[in-house]
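Side project, low priority. Logging it here so it doesn't get lost.
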Amino acid sequence: MNNLNPMPIQKTETVAASEITRDTTPLRFITCGSVDDGKSTLIGRLLWDTKTVFDDQIEATSKNSGNDQLDLPDFANLLDGLQAEREQGITIDVAYRYFSTQKRSFIVADTPGHKQYTRNMATGASNADLAVLLVDARAGILEQTRRHATIVSLMGIRQIVLVANKIDLVDYQESSFNSAVTQFTNFAKEFNFQSITTIPVSAINGENVASQAQHKMPWYNGPTLLETLELATKPAASSVGFRLPVQRVCRPDESFRGYQGTVAGGAIKPGDSVTILPSGETANVKKIITFDLVRNAGVSGDAITLELDRQIDISRGDMITSHDAKPHVSDTFDAHLIVLSNKGLQTQKRYWLKTGSRRQHVFIDPKTSLNLETGEWEENDNLSVNTIADIQLKFEAVAIFDTYRQNRITGSFILIDPDTNETVAAGMINAVASHVVPFKNPDSETLTLFSLPQQLVEKFIKTDFYKENSIHIQSTEISEFEMKTLLKKQNKQRK
């Protein structure tokens, strides 16, 4: 029971350093989990074992780890740099560290486990390719473990490494490890994780961190944490098309007008046709300019200036997109939301929504929220701090989004309180808001519910099938929870 859908682990052989094929693209990952599960200690030990700790860091780190016989520093202090963190022995802010091996390089974000710092954990997860989720082998899965696993799933992370830490404190018992694995896999069934690798670890002793510990755990024959990280895959790049949120219009003189921004997806080259949203105007790319030269292409992550073949009214907050692969444009979107403000959210209040360089007024219509104990989405309009909710965004003007699954940059947003300028929530777009459409055939007693986007309903009404059949269509806004409730009532009536 060592691994559930484990990443493919290949048998390695000792070869010369010059013969090793090195992946030059850094793997970005986070450590997360409940408080005191040993996240900072684990990463500190990983830095120590990969020999990426500098001498001045070793000297500045007090030797108070409780492992005096090993003459080792307090590994957590290699990550916890704030005075308050060292005094309390907790992680408050996200700590980023870079390290590398002969096979690849890594950027790790050590995130806090306390419930009140969930917002910092969500920030760290927003750019990660993989999540290392820690549990204390003595305590198993806790509420904050489930909360972090849910946030990881919502953030689009599909590779999970479940680390059962402090296995030495349960005398290396396999049963404790299996119990934690069973608890987590049962909870994570609804999540779309591509792989879950499970590893028993003693971070303080370095067992199964970078070296095997079969003498202590003969029942475990899986990979170490470092081996798993080295063989992890990076998610495929976004394939939704070219996206350039316009940050600035550059007009140094009357002969030049350029549109500047960072490419958020896809690629572009001179001669390509583009559409400007929300206006819908089209043009062709005349020239692509960077800070030092004219280029023949621009790709995701590049900061560029586009010159078009004709003059168009384009402003900061507009988006230049592929002509044949445009994002969604609507005034209503379905989204998941994580509440970050201690004051919670007010459903009748108008907030600022910011995505990229675009800022708009929006109202929030809560539908359901996640019960972390049961894993069920329940009807709830109380958006208190740390709530994970399914909501509907209602804009005063049209908004421009991809789904978060398609593009993390153009599918994410934050909410800002207009009175305090506080960031009160972060969210991910699921889809253009859909409607549940009940219709009944007059010759039948059966009521069928379809959940369809409004534009598809309008197309269906125009079809010959609709015209030739007696079908009654009624469009209404309804939550997924309400739809399930209606279906349950219908089933009871039939019985």
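Brief comment: The CA atoms of residues 157 and 231 lie 16 Å apart.
Revisit when time allows.
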